[in-house]
Amino acid sequence: MYVGQGFLRILCLAAAALLICTTWLSLGSLLLGPRSIRGYVSSHIQLTRWTQLAVDSGRSDVFNETLGFEKVFVIGLPERSDNRDALSLMTSVTGFRLTWIDGVHGSSTPDKALPFGWDRKLMPDTHLGSWRSHINAIRLIVEDGLSSALIMEDDMDWDVHLKTQLSQFAPAAQTLEAGFHRNQTLASPSPYGRDWDLLWLGSCATTFDAQLPEHLRIPEAERDGRQVLIRDNVYSFAYALSAAGARKALRYLGLEGQHKPFDNHPSDLCRLRADGMRGDSDIGGGSGGVRELGFTENMLHSTRLNLANLIRGLEPEQQWED
Question: Is 215 helix (H, G, I), strand (E, B) or coil?
Fold first, then answer.
């Protein structure tokens, strides 16, 4: 993805894009490779936490209770107490805290509150409710003056080694940003650097076209090793916004935007076209059948599927053999 001239500066690494994903949905590629899980267990309030002490003290705040952000927000409908119960257990065994934001139903949003030019007939209530819920979360970052926040959805899953993966992503993100202000000597207050608007950590269905038309190519004179242009990115399972990024996103997504699923909007911020929604959710796309045993695509050590083991202090089971 082009890092520089777009509406937002977006850092998107192959590993980072799939650190967090939603249960039941197909992902584009594997997470970081499996590592030995022995030695990662530490006891805290009689619960096993799959965390590792930070080797580099400069990145230690990735291992705090908000994953190196000021807050971690989760959007969920109040009546989906099952999702809240599951995420409360999942975060307790992987060592971070959530701040819940009630999701809203689209039917509760009046026409006069929609951005000018929206056609409600083209926006099902489920999609409208998702859009309004995310806008509420983004607005909270602006209203509370937060330096950054991670926003997730309540049907999430993540690898039990999430903090270790983030500790590998953080210095990579800073490396990508290093050239923006070459004379900057002040240390970054964030482990992910100071010069970003959006970190898209929970996306899916990214496509890359090596044969881009000429008008989409990065001019030769403006290229450097940090710039990659991809066709699109889809899904809003988890994304982080800085204070500046939240203001930009609120202006475009809340006051302008387009009448389409929120999952497609982050790609709009990059001035690139996205595909659409896929998978089972309260918003749409479900198969309608009954699934007795859950699964998470391309997740070796799923936290959600290992809750029974983790809360008893047992090692997590792999979904497939190495």
Answer: helix
Question: Sorting pLDDT into bands at 50, 70 and 90, what band is 15?
Answer: very low
Please check whether residue 53 is in contact with residue 263, taking contact to mean a CB–CB distance below 8 angstroms: no
Instruction: Judge whether 322 lies within some domain.
Output: no
Q: Does residue 57 fall inside a structural domain?
A: yes
- Sorted by sequence, the CB contacts under 8 Å of residue 312 that are 6+ apart come out as none
Number of domains the chain is built from: 1
Within-domain flag for 173: yes
- In the numeric block, the tokens 């450097």 are attached to 224
- Whether 3 maps to a domain, the answer reads no
Give the whole-angstrom CA distance, residue 182 versus residue 226.
Answer: 14
pLDDT bucket at 149, cuts 50 / 70 / 90: very high
40 to each of 17, 158, 200, 283, 298, how far by Cα in Å?
24, 16, 27, 36, 22
How far apart, in Å, are the Cα atoms of 58 and each of 70, 137, 171, 198, 311? 16, 29, 10, 21, 30
Q: Which long-range contacts (CB under 8 A, 24 or more apart) does 189-195 make?
A: 189/147, 190/68, 190/69, 190/147, 190/148, 190/242, 191/58, 191/59, 191/61, 191/62, 191/68, 192/11, 192/68, 192/148, 192/240, 195/9
Q: pLDDT at position 303, please?
A: 85
**Spatial distance between the Cα atoms of 274 and 267, rounded to a whole number of angstroms:** 6
